[in-house]
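Side project, low priority. Logging it here so it doesn't get lost.
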Amino acid sequence: MTAKHRADFPGTVDIVVEIPRGSRNKYEYDEETGVFRLDRILSSAVFYNFDYGFIEETRAADGDHTDALLIIDEPTFTGCHVWGRPIGGLEMSDENGFDFKVLCVALGDPHQAHITRLAQVRPHRLVEIEHFFQTYKLLEKKTTEVLGWRERDRALEVLREDRATWGREQAR
């Protein structure tokens, strides 16, 4: 099953959860040491309303792995690996420039596994996610601009580009 999922990239991705849904703690994976560190506690009165992490073997324009938002009924835990299906993405910019967050559903969650595109997600859930990213850094005096949701094809394109960047980096 694992080899099959890996071979299906970018249709199936390996998501590493950094922040479980419901948390105000911002954890980040430290690639140099291989540990998860508390980066900060969100200073705004908001919390992650989705599991948040990154997609293995990718490298985004900001130098980190590609960001992943995971729709799953129950929160997981920091360090949990989850097979996900990309269904779209949220295009943004922040203090580091272009930022694309791939929206995925957990293949292991029977309540979400049927979702294959953005139109199948409850519209209010998408608005909640946008609102989170519009407000979570306000009290830190950092700016974020939410540019909007992009369909699955765009998310897959970003994933292919970021996987190619990762591959070039590993070949050095």
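Brief comment: The chain has three helices and eight strands.
Revisit when time allows.
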